[in-house]
TrEMBL record:
GO terms for biological process: translation. PANTHER family: 60S RIBOSOMAL PROTEIN L43 (PTHR48188), LARGE RIBOSOMAL SUBUNIT PROTEIN EL43-RELATED (PTHR48188:SF1). This is 60S ribosomal protein L37a. Belongs to the eukaryotic ribosomal protein eL43 family. GO terms for molecular function: large ribosomal subunit rRNA binding; structural constituent of ribosome; zinc ion binding. It comes from Balaenoptera musculus. One of its GO terms (cellular component) is cytosolic large ribosomal subunit. Coiled coil: none annotated. InterPro entries: Ribosomal_eL37/eL43 (IPR011331), Ribosomal_eL43 (IPR002674), Ribosomal_zn-bd (IPR011332). Keywords: Metal-binding, Ribonucleoprotein, Ribosomal protein, Zinc, Zinc-finger.
C-alpha cells in the first residue's frame, strides 16, 4: 500500500479538506516533539519516552519523571536549569538550643 503522507508527515491522518494547512503545521510540530525520544538526564541515553501528559519514562534506567506536556524539558527548565530551580527551595531548620540536654521542647 502506498504511503501518501510524504510531504505532510504525521498529520496526514487529518486529511486535506479539514482544519487548514496552518493548523496542521502547528499540530505537526507538537506531535513530532511529543513522539520523539529524548536524552535521559540520569544516564545520558536516548531512551526517554512519553507515557502520558507530563509523565516521561526512561527505558534504560526505568525511572519515571515529570516533565512538560509535549516535550521532556519545559522552557522554564531549559532557561534556568534544574540546579538553579532546586536552589530556590529553602530548607526549614528546627531550632536546637545550645544546651540541648536541658531544653528539648523545640525538637
Amino acid at each position: 500500500m502506498a504511503k501518501c503522507t510524504k510531504t505532510v508527515g504525521i498529520v496526514g491522518k487529518y486529511g486535506t479538506p479539514y482544519y487548514g494547512a496552518s493548523l496542521r503545521k502547528m499540530v505537526k510540530k507538537t506531535e513530532i516533539s511529543q513522539h520523539a525520544k529524548y536524552t535521559c538526564s540520569f544516564r545520558g541515553k536516548t531512551k526517554m519516552k512519553r507515557q502520558a501528559v507530563g509523565i516521561w519514562h526512561c527505558g534504560s534506567c526505568m525511572k519515571t519523571v515529570a516533565g512538560g506536556a509535549w516535550t521532556y524539558n519545559t522552557t522554564f527548565t531549559a532557561k534556568t536549569g534544574l540546579s538553579s530551580c532546586a536552589s530556590t527551595f529553602t530548607t526549614v531548620f528546627r531550632y536546637i538550643p545550645s544546651n540541648a540536654a536541658e531544653n528539648t521542647r523545640w525538637r
